[in-house]
């Protein structure tokens, strides 16, 4: 099955930011996105916010998934959002955050422009459906 928007695949960057070295979840979601017909790029581990912004802009992705388990989400994710805004890519990129994000930190991330936060226990199907329904049309 190919997931497309008017004949074009949904392009996704699955990224790991900061010193977080746990990437099993990122691999699982990258594979699930691929199996759902999305075009998927995986950043690899230990990327700086600037590297993720550069990859998202250069690859012209529709969706940026940020996997973070380190607890530095309140520092690193806003840097990514600011970088996307700097390149005028923030409004054209659906940004998702996956990981352990405390409830009290979620609104700040949403206010920064994160479209959705998927924590432990979120089904793969729910995440894929969210992307299909919310990926920006170009």
Name the features.
Cobalamin-bd_sf; Rossmann fold; two-stranded antiparallel ribbon; alpha/beta; 138 residues; single chain; five-stranded parallel β-sheet; Cobalamin-bd
Q: How many helical elements?
A: 5
The residue ranges in which pLDDT falls below 50 over 5 or more consecutive positions are none
Termini Cα gap: 21 Å
CATH fold category name: Rossmann fold
CATH superfamily caption: Cobalamin-binding domain
Biggest β-sheet: strands ordered side by side in the sheet:
4-3-5-6-7
Q: What's the overall average pLDDT, rounded?
A: 92
The share of residues in helices is: 40-55%
User: Which CATH class?
Assistant: Alpha Beta
- β-strand amount: 15-25%
Name the shape in a single word. globular
- Secondary-structure arrangement, i.e. CATH architecture: 3-Layer(aba) Sandwich
Question: Radius of gyration in whole Å, from Cα?
Answer: 13 Å
**What summary fits the major beta sheet?**
5 strands, parallel
- Structural category is alpha/beta
Assembly type of the chains comes to single chain
SSE string, helix = H, strand = E? EEEHEHEHEHEH
Number of domains: 1
Cofactor: adenosylcob(III)alamin
Keywords: Cobalamin, Cobalt, Isomerase, Metal-binding
Protein name: Cobalamin B12-binding domain-containing protein
Pfam families: B12-binding
